[in-house]
């Protein structure tokens, strides 16, 4: 009587096996999972409990939550409800340990496939005739893609300008492009950062210089301003941003804005106007040395023009520019403006590519070439652009293919 009164709630559970057997088990909710498992094994595998390992080799899984039930917990503790579905499965047997003979055979196979060490190579090649190979010459014979790419871009820009000059809408297209270039990323200053510095009492022009030198970091700019407070050259303009150049550029932009083409302009006038726009775009894309690197190299005692040339040749990389200044200074800055031989197999293969041909008629491609020519670090941006990316990919593939032959 007492057992019936105090017994837990009886749950009806639907149990199934991987072999397709199904049945109902009625168990009190205080029954352990291990006891439930024994009852299930008695039902589906008669006589299996004679082996004490049989219970541990099986497990019950809650079908809804896919949770493996713990043997020591009760049905209630595992939060099993009435009419829940449980799956009884046998655990996978662990893989047998390899025999000693198999281990020895595997080690022997690994030893046979192992690459020879330096001593073995020297011993095997001791009787071969020696040959002197000039590794320096062999290294320089491998053309550097970045160096060649610059030459390719110089020549492709000339081709693209000639093709786009034939487009009747080219002038308007490039006027819009030229207007977009007026707002250069390097010329922008974080207004909030600038206001924070000016509110501290620093002059605006000096604060702008400090922010540009420190990549718009207010903390670093403030430290720079305090450190150079007594420096007589603190207000000197940054290289590539002299007041006279800024005024000249502003004048060129205003002149362009006011001088619009006449609706009845001849084709020759439009061509001349397009040439002028090309020149203005090129001027806006002129190389600008990294101010921080420029100052660091100037402090080493190098001449200003030499430093600018070194940074231009080496894409604003300080270590490479320093090596260039201390070395034979090749390539020279003049070499950067030379294009590739237009009769070379490489250039002919590039021009014959349909993707490149189509891209050269797109004004955006020309702008990308101009930008990469003066800012090589921006090449990743143009490689990811849906319009210019395919063109750059084809140029790279053609170069790699011909370079291997």
Automatic annotation (TrEMBL):
Stored SMART domains: STI1, UBA
Annotated protein name in UniProt: Ubiquitin-associated domain-containing protein 1
Keyword Repeat: yes
Upper classification of the organism: Eukaryota, Metazoa, Chordata, Craniata, Vertebrata
Pfam families: UBA_7, UBL_UBAC1
GO BP terms: protein ubiquitination
Every UBA domain range: 182-228, 288-328
GO cellular component terms listed in the entry, alphabetical order: cytoplasm; ubiquitin ligase complex
Location in or out of the cell: Cytoplasm
TM region(s), chain numbering: none
Tree of life domain: Eukaryota
Residue stretches in coiled coil: none
Compositional bias per record (Basic and acidic residues), positions renumbered to this chain: 105-116
Pathway: Protein modification; protein ubiquitination
UniProt-annotated stretches for the region Disordered: 97-116, 231-271
Keyword list, A-Z: Cytoplasm, Repeat, Ubl conjugation pathway
Biased composition (Low complexity): 242-265
Principal localisation: cytoplasm
